[in-house]
Amino acid sequence: MTRLRIQRTTWPRRALILTDTPRPNCRNCDGEGGTAHDYGDYETGEYAGTDYEPCPCWNETRRWTLLPLPRRPRWLRRQRPDIDPWAEPPF
Questions:
Q1: Read out DSSP for 34-82?
Q2: I need a labelling partner for 71 at 20 to 30 A (CA). Which of 28, 37, 45, 61 fits?
């Protein structure tokens, strides 16, 4: 049974990729793809971070490039993203 999905990536290049997903009925991770373990500082006992242990039911590095996406033209990259360059000016 394949558990593939399409995603958009920006690194190392903009592209549509096909990627693997965790097994939804996995007994180890319950379909989350891994287990998070919180840990604390030894002296104070306060929260110090989270370790993530990936589950063997999936490989998060398994991906295939479907379609490289073109870069936006330079003149569109320099403008503010909230301004639509194709919109008509208000009158």
A1: EEEEEEE-TTT--EEEEEEEE-TT--TT-EEEEEEPPPPPHHHHSS-TT
A2: 61
